[in-house]
Amino acid sequence: CCVFLSSLVTQTSGISALPLVSLFFYVVTDGKEVLVPEVGAKGQLKFISGHSSELGDFRLTLMAPTNPGDTVPKYGSYNVFWSSNPGLALLTEMVKSRLNSWFQHRPPGASPERYLGLPGSLKWEDRGPSGQGQGQGQFLIQQVTLKVPFSVELVFESGSARAGGSQPLEQLAGSLLTQALESHVEAFREHFEKTFQLKKKGLSPEEQALGQAALSGLLGGIGYFYGQGLVLADMGVEGSEQKVDPALFPPVPLFTAVPSRSFFPRGFLWDEGFHQLVVQRWDPRLTREVLGHWLGLLNADGWIGREQVLGDEARARVPPEFLVQRAAHANPPTLLLPVAHMLKGGDPADFAFLRRAFPRLHAWFSWLHKSQAGPVPLSYRWRGRDPALPTLLNPKTLPSGLDDYPRASHPSASERHLDLRCWVALGARVLVQLAEQLGEAEAAAELGPLAASLEAEESLDELHWAAELGVFADFGNHTRAVHLKPRPPQGLVRVVGRPHPRLQYVDALGYVSLFPMLLRLLDPNSPRLGPLLDILADSRHLWSPFGLRSLAASSPFYGQHNSEHDPPYWRGAVWLNVNYLALGALYHYGHLEGPHQARAAKLHSELRDNVVGNVWRQYQTTGFLWEQYSDRDGRGMGCRPFQGWTSLVLLAMAEDY
What we know:
The structure is a single chain. By secondary structure, the chain is an alpha+beta fold. The chain has a domain at 20-164. It is built from 17 helices and 25 strands. The strands form ten sheets. The protein has a four-stranded antiparallel β-sheet, with no helix packed on it. A four-stranded antiparallel β-sheet has the order 3-4-5-10. The radius of gyration is 29 Å and the shape is elongated.
C-alpha cells in the first residue's frame, strides 16, 4: 500500500490575492490489499480503512486543515476519486486527464473561485470482472483545496494501536501530536548533549544544530534490506579467461546504514565501519545489531561482498558494471574500527557480542590476510584492479575504496599496496587484543606473531619506504610518463612515453602515503612521523583551508580525468572519512610523549577548525552534507544529501576519536 502527495497551485486574479492550493493524497494498492472508504452522513470521506499483509489493519484520516499554529478548522473544498489501479507509472497522467474547472471554492462570506478538481464519487467505478475482481489493485485519491497559509495532517493509525488495551488510544494528531513531538525533541537534545557535549565544549547553537542534523540523517538512513545478490565465484586463478556466469546467492537480510538514501540506498562494506563509529556513540545496541547482520553475510571462505545489492528493486537502481560482486575482491575492513572502540569501552553487552562474533571476525580477517597476499612476505595487493585499457589514464582499484587514486601505471602481480598492508596490520592488532581478552589462546598464539611482524617498522620500511620520494608509497610496474591525448575518432586515449615503466615506488603523494600514520601504526618516536607531518602540513601537497586533499596538488594526476567521461574522484577532493582518521591520528600523537607531540597537537587543532568550519559553512549555504568537498573553494561536491561518513563531522566537533 502506497501513499503519495502532490500539489497544484491555481492562479488567481490580482497581484496580492493569495493563491488556491490543491493537495492530492494518493492511496494505492497492488491488488493484494484492501481499501474501504468510510463515508459520512453528507457523502464526504471520513477516513480510509484498509488491510495489508505487512501492516495488518490500518486507518488513514485526512484531518480538517487549520491556519498554522491554530486549532480552528479552515474552510476547504474536497474532491474524491476511486478507481482501479492503472499502474504506478500511469497514476499522474490519469489524474491530469480527469481534472476540470467546473468546481468552485466557496468560503463563507467570500467570492467563489474556480479551481481544477477531480470529478468522482465514492462509488466503485469499475464494477464486475474488469475491476476489483481482477486483482489489479485500487487507487483512491482525496483532493483538498484551500487558501494559503494552512496546516494539514494525514494521520495513519494501525489497527493494533486502535485495539490495544482496555481503553482506545486517543488519536495522535493536532496539539497532542505537537506535545509528543516536543517531548521527543527535548529528550533527543538532552541525550545528544550528554553523549557529545558540544555545548559544554563551547560550540555555537548553529554548530550544535549541524551535529544534530548529521546524526539524525545517518540514523534516518538505517534500513532493513532483504534479497539475493549476484556473485561471481572465485575460480582461484586471477585473470583466468574461463567464462563463469554470476550466480544469485541465497536470500539474506541486512540491517545497515547507507551513504545516501537517495543516491546510494544500499549497504557498502567500507562505508559501514565509519557509519558505526557515529552510531555506536549514540546507541551501542544498534551497532551490535548492524555488525551482526554484516558478519552474517560471511560465506564459507570468510568473504563479505563490498556492495550489497539485494533484490530486484535494488538491482534496478545500480549501474550494470557494479551489480556483480566478485568473491576474490576485498574491501577495507573498517568494521574493525567500531570493534576496536568496543574493546576500549568495557561495556558487558559489547563484550558478550564480541564473544559470539569472534569466530566470524577471525574467519573474515584470515580470508583477507590470505587472499590478498602480495608477491613477497608481509606484502599485500588488492585483487580486482581494472585492466590497462587504452582509454584509462590509470586503471582503477575499486576494492580499495579509493577508486581512481593513482596506483602503478601498469597493473601487475608484483604490486605492493601500502594502504592494504596497513589495514591488515590494524586487523591483526585488533584480533589479537580481542583474542587475548576473550581467552582465545590458540587464536592469540596464531595471530600474535603476524601482528608483531606487521607492526615492525623495519619491515614496513623495507617494503614501502621510498627514500627518493621521502614518504611511504605503493610499489609496482610504473612510469610517470602517461597522458590522455585526443586521437580521433577514438577520443582520448592513453599515451605512454619515456621513461618506460619499471618496478619502482609509485610517486602518488596523497591519502595512501599517510596510512601508517592514519591507522596509528607508527611509534611516536618514529623517524618517519616527522616527514609525514611535513607532507600533511604543506599547502603545496595535502593541506588546504578546507581539509586534507586526497591527492597532492603537486601530483601530475591531481584533478585529472581518468578517461574522457570519468572525472576525478579521489584526486584532490577533501573526504571526511580520511580527514577524520587524520584528526584521530594527530590527536593520538599529540597526547603521546615524543619529538612531534606539540606539532601534532597544533596540526590537529588547525585541521579540525578547517574541516568543521567548511562543512558548517556549506551546510549553512546549501542545507546539505556532501559526499566530498573541493580543496580549492570548499564547495560541496558529488551527491547530496550524503549523511553517511560525512556525519563524522559530529565526532570531529566532539573531539571523539
